[in-house]
Structures are given as structure tokens and as C-alpha cells.
Design brief:
Length: 273
């Protein structure tokens, strides 16, 4: 089945399209419209944004401009770190709804595990009951943060979105999420554009006549991760979804496993909140 038609089921019974468009660093209205319209025209039905990306208004307008029905598009946003106090999260949820110009958010995440993360979670749970949010989850949570949350949560997180790619495989965290029915979502799947510099990925790209970006995305698809590659360019948005005509063998996956592990973004265990 085409990656753009695949859904992954949450522990609350709802689905998320396995592939979406990331929008981090898309700032200008023109590039936001180009990327979002290209994605939806190509068949993407899932867009990932966040309060801190400062692009939600244009993202919402770009989605509306495609005239695809609201209920057919899956929209994720995230509560920024400075708003994790209970009352601040409540306020930020309304700002997100207002900026995106929508009545409900499909998936709302705690962006990073700040010291106020549990207060934030309580406000997210209430937003589900109020009908403002369909599903709630976390981002950049380590095993210790998940263990703590699972002890107190009235609603279980459906997903954990974290840096995860062929050069950062996070085995223990992935296994923990899978064991607790928390869907794994990869950010930075293309090693944030650095996949072209990795010898093992160069080899596989050559072997399959695909780009290194497509090799990374196929690797993530085969692991059942939700993927949200970002590109500001129409051709690349289309290219990133064009991964249905090949697969990777056990030997290819073994080769990928030899890539040197290296985190590109901040480390959640010592991120300076
Ligand atoms: N939860 C979090 O803390 C967190 C953190 C980071 C990101 N995210 C989310 O995850 C999404 C993806 O992560 P990311 O944007 O950091 O990294 P990414 O998707 O791994 O890589 C994006 C980079 O790759 C380039 N690129 C994309 N497709 C390409 C292709 N086919 N060929 C060549 N270059 C290509 C893009 O450049 P061009 O735009 O010039 O094409 C951009 O520089 C974000 O947009 C955001 O929605 C979440």
C-alpha cells in the first residue's frame, strides 16, 4: 500500500496517517503555501506544526486553500516549553486553535519534558474532555519521563515524537514505547538534511537509484515509525513520498545499523529549559 494511504492506530482507537509534512523552519507565507499545497496535492493528509514554529496562521490558511475537508486532514501541534504551567497550557491551546483557524486539534504534544510537564499533561487531558483535542501525546520524552507520566496519567499518551533516524536509533526508547502501546514518531528522519553525507546511505541510494532521503524514509517506514520530513520545495515534498517502489533487505538494514550514532538536536536529558 502507498505510504500516503497508510494509517497507524493509536491506543485510543484513532488513527494517524503514517506520513506527514514537517513544517519546522518554514516561516515565509509563500514557502509555507508552496510546501503545504504540494503535500496535499500529492496526497499527504497530515501536517506537523508547533506553537514555537510561529507559522500556524499561514499553515492553517494553506490547508484551507486546498479545499480538502477539515476532517480529512490530520493536524499536530505542540505546547511550547514556556507554557507548561497548567493555566498557561490552557491559554496556549486556545491560541493554537485560533491561529490554525480550526475547531479541534487532532494531536497535541508536550514539546519537551520541562519540569512543569505533568501540569501541562493535566491541562491536555481536560482539553480532550472539552473536545478541543482528539489525541494527546509527548515529544522528546525519555524512558524516565514516560515512566513518570504513565504513573499519573488518566489518559495514556498515544505517541512520542523524538529525534530518530539511521544515525540515532534509540533502541531502548523505541522498545519501551512499543511495549506500552505508544506510537513512535521520528523527527529529523533525514538526519535533518545530513543523510547525503553518510557513506552507507550513499551506497544504498546508488543500489536502488533512490535518494539518501528516500532510503531514510523507507528505513523508518519499515520500522513502523510515523514520519514527517520537512521540505520547503515542491519537488522534494513529492520525492519524499515516492518510496513505494522499493524496499530494503535484511543486509541493507544491517548496513544501516553500522552508521555511527550521533544526535543532531538537543539532548532531552540536559536540554536547557
Ligand atoms: N518535536 C520536536 O522537538 C521536533 C524537532 C525538530 C523537528 N520536528 C518536526 O519534524 C520535522 C522534520 O524534522 P526536521 O525538519 O528537523 O528535519 P528533516 O525532515 O530530517 O530534514 C529537513 C532538511 O532536509 C532537507 N530535505 C528535505 N527533503 C529533502 C530531499 N528530498 N532532498 C534533499 N534535502 C531534503 C530540507 O531542506 P529544504 O527545506 O531546503 O528542502 C531540510 O534542510 C520538522 O519539520 C518538525 O515538524 C520536531
Amino acid at each position: 500500500m502507498s505510504i500516503l494511504k497508510k494509517d497507524i492506530k493509536f491506543n485510543n482507537g484513532l488513527n494517524i496517517p503514517q506520513m506527514g509534512l514537517g513544517t519546522y523552519q518554514l516561516k515565509e507565507k509563500d514557502e509555507i503555501f508552496e510546501a503545504v499545497q504540494a503535500a496535499i496535492e500529492a496526497g499527504y493528509r497530515h501536517i506537523d506544526t508547533a506553537m514555537i514554529y510561529k507559522n500556524q496562521k499561514a499553515v492553517g490558511e494553506a490547508i484551507k486553500s486546498t479545499r480538502v475537508k477539515r476532517e480529512d486532514i490530520f493536524i499536530t501541534s505542540k505546547i511550547w516549553n514556556s507554557s507548561h504551567a497548567y493555566e498557561d497550557t490552557k491559554k496556549e491551546i486556545d491560541v493554537i486553535l485560533n491561529e490554525l483557524g480550526i475547531e479541534y486539534i487532532d494531536l497535541l504534544l508536550i514539546h519537551w519534558p520541562t519540569p512543569k510537564r505533568l501540569e501541562c499533561w493535566k491541562a491536555l487531558e481536560e482539553a480532550v474532555i472539552e473536545g478541543k483535542v482528539k489525541s494527546i501525546g509527548v515529544s522528546n520524552f525519555l524512558v524516565e519521563h514516560l515512566e513518570e507520566l504513565l504513573k499519573v496519567a488518566k489518559i495514556k499518551p498515544v505517541i512520542n515524537q523524538f529525534e530518530l533516524h539511521p544515525a540515532l536509533t534509540c533502541k531502548e526508547l523505541v522498545d519501551y514505547c512499543k511495549k506500552h502501546e505508544i506510537v513512535v514518531e521520528s523527527w529529523g528522519t533525514l538526519i535533518r538534511g545530513k543523510c547525503f553525507e553518510v557513506e552507507q546511505l550513499n551506497q544504498l541510494a546508488k543500489k536502488y537509484n533512490k535518494s539518501e532521503a528516500q532510503i531514510c524514509l523507507k528505513w523508518a517506514e519499515l520500522n513502523d515509525y510515523v514520519i514527517i520530513p520537512k521540505s520547503s520545495k515542491k519537488q522534494r515534498v513529492i520525492e519524499n513520498a515516492n518510496i513505494d517502489d522499493f524496499t530494503l533487505t535484511k543486509e541493507d538494514l544491517d548496513l544501516i545499523a553500522t552508521i555511527k550514532e550521533q544526535r543532531d538536536g538537543p539532548d532531552p536529558s540536559n536540554f536547557n529549559f
